[in-house]
Amino acid sequence: MGNGNLSEPCLCRELHPNCDPSTCPQAAHVTGQHAPLTSFRELRKSADRGCQTCATVVEALLVPEVRAAWRDCIAPALEAKRPGLVQGLEQDEDLIELEFDPPDTVNGRRVVRMRASHTSTDWRNFNIWRVPSVGEFLTHRSDDACSAISSLQYHPTQRTDSSQNLEQLKAWIEACDRKHTCLASAASILPTRVVKISGGEVRIVKTAGERARYATLSHRWGARESFTLTKSNEQTFADDIPWETIPKTFQDAIWLTRQLNIEYIWIDTICIVQDDPEDWRRESVRMKFVYGKSYINIAASHATDSSADLFTSSDLPQRYPAYAVPDNHGVFVRQQPYRTHNEFGSNYGSDSRFPLLRRGWVLQERLLSPRVVYFDAEEMKWECNTAADCQCGGIVSVWNFKIDHCRSVLRGETSLSIEWMRIAERYSELELTYDSDRVVALAGIAAQASRLGRGGRYLAGVWEEDLAHQLCWEILDTHRKPDQYVAPSWSWLSVFGSVGYFNRMDYHKCSQIDVEITEVECTTAEETDETGPVVGGFLRLNGRCAHMRAELLDPGSNDVPPKFELTHKATGEKMGDGEWVEMDFVMSEDDARKIGEVVVLYWGDMCDDRNNFLVLKAVTGQARTFERLGIFWYDKRTESEDLGRVLGWCRLETGIVIV
Q1: SS3 readout for 415-471
Q2: Between β-strands 214-218 and 264-266, what pairing exists: parallel, antiparallel or unpaired?
Q3: Residue 583 — φ and ψ, nearest 5°?
Q4: Burial of 139 (0-12, 13-18, 19+ CB in 10 A)
Q5: pLDDT (0 to 100) of residue 606
Q6: pLDDT computed for residue 351 by the predictor
Q7: SS3 16
Q8: CA distances from 253 to 37, 139, 141, 203, 555 (A)
Q9: Residue 137: pLDDT band by 50, 70, 90 thresholds?
Q10: What's the CA dihedral at 8, 13, 16, 19 to 10 degrees?
């Protein structure tokens, strides 16, 4: 599938990374980057000039079912231009543009991305591949001078426990073992207890420093999880666990672990004594090592509790069928789902389709495990510290949440502060059964970064390095303050609700912090563990402040925080025009009416010209000591006059303490 004598860079050049430059001229032009967008018309011209790869792509995209799929995204433009008229191929070519994804960003797949030329939001992605000949299967090599259209070994299947799926999983593991450094050692020191599953037996064994490979299971606890290890059944579980008593999710995970020739699996419900607080405390701290040293973590993504099947049937092969490309023997094309796996991306929240990924504890299970295989309602997905993949092709390695985390925390390639803001955003929207788990369920991820010397001291959910930027969070949805102390009010951990950092992506390029932090301390229950439960903390700083009266406009409700309008005490002028404080949490009407006066502290000119003020309430009986109540901000581009007026009220104050 060569390119004739074309020596100049071709539109398809990024599809040639595996070609030999001595036989394929385009191999010399591969950059590994996205080539500029081009039109369908230009692609056809390239094919007419003799590029066989472009000609194959054109033929693939003109398969009737494929053409119908990409025509959907230009239909509005067609109708708007010539109402009621069916447009021909030339008109399609004028309105559609495409690009080739570099294969190394999509796990070797040859992906063509198409969109209407008037919009960037609605894409159609297509995989193009060839089926190797019998000779190629036997020799593992191609006689073709060009391998731009490569083979695709694994495809969506109708059952996630099929033999093809098992082979796919083994291939992912083998590739990770051979190409990556995700796993330091195949055999690790076993956790305190593991489930021994070799030789047909299933029982709990206590370990004493033995080394072996073991799997872990991430699953969602049900409302009444009864199959647990307790003081009363500990000896029984050590003797034998009858197969018929084991929940279905656990049975399937054990079956899969056996297929991978692994003797042990760790499952939290039966490897920690659930009615022994001391055992739970001790083992919960060790979870970061349990998952961090596992050979593979099995994630029951779609299951709401342990009674559900780990494996499911899928209609992906029917929804995204493969079509043979005419006049190209052995070449096929299939539409690939687009943006269906946002919950695995860096800049998206958790997806309600996956109950497991809404669980707070699972975030560290996902990020600490070197390798995770997810079983959801449609297919099997893979994440390791280096790559991500799935059977439909909708997940890619670029901008993957776990991979970006590893690049920052493990390899120091990107800013820890930016990565931690992303973690805070993701973790804050997850569910926890107990408020007391708020700090503990994040501790493993924090300990990983701390152990590698990133970010300075860990301080109740934020890092000492770039601290001021990390304190500029805001609440995005329902939010409450827990009954028990969890963290200082300046930490996003102090309130329960989804938080956001509008300054996250490029804060280091454009934000200008106005405050000067002079001292910060955080006290944990165990002094030697800075990631453990927090018992106190304070922040001392110098900054520009204005003293305001807080007028209660609306007391709010159980789900809605109160609304306050702020008035400058000295001048009687209002802060903002019809705007109010974005409160951090809901409160009773009685508490809201007690607020009365507040201090606004100018934090700085943040990214996108958002000028932020923290709203503080004085702590009774403690001089110059405050708690954070909320945030107030101006857009300098449209509210510069109001901003200047408020800054004119502000006076520099020193030794301000926030607890």
Answers
A1: CHHHHHHHHHHHHHCCECCCCCHHHHHHHHHHHHHHHCCCCCCEECCEECCCHHHHC
A2: parallel
A3: -75, 150
A4: exposed
A5: 84
A6: 58
A7: coil
A8: 45, 36, 37, 14, 50
A9: very low
A10: 0
DSSP annotation of 574 reads: B
- As a whole number of angstroms, the distance between CA 128 and CA 100 comes to 11
- Give me the mean pLDDT over the 642-653 stretch: 96
CA–CA dist 246, 226 (Å, integer): 11
Which neighbouring-strand residues pair with 539?
A: 520, 658
Tokens of 502: 């509008």
586 burial type by CB count under 10 A (0-12 exposed, 13-18 middle, 19+ buried): buried
Give the span between the Cα atoms of 393 and 382, in whole angstroms. Answer: 11
| 400 Cα distance to chain centroid | 6
Nearest to 431 by CA among 353, 357, 534: 357
Domain residue ranges in the chain: 13-152, 188-314+339-396, 468-658
As a dihedral over the C-alpha atoms of residue 389, residue 255, residue 215, residue 247, rounded to 10 degrees, the angle is 110
What number of helices (H) and strands (E) belong to the chain? 20, 29
Whole-Å CA distances, 592 to 27, 478, 494, 554, 629: 68, 17, 18, 9, 11
Tell me the per-residue pLDDT of 355-369, one tens digit each, with 9 for 90 and over. Answer: 999 999 999 999 999
For 230-259, the pLDDT digits (tens) are 999 999 999 999 999 999 999 999 999 999
For the chain, the average pLDDT equals 88
373 against 580, higher pLDDT: 373
Going along 278-423, which residue ranges are E strands?
296-300, 323-324, 331-336, 371-375, 380-384, 388-390
d(CA 595, CA 452): 43
pTM of the model: 0.89
User: Alpha-carbon distance 601 to 649, whole Å?
Assistant: 11
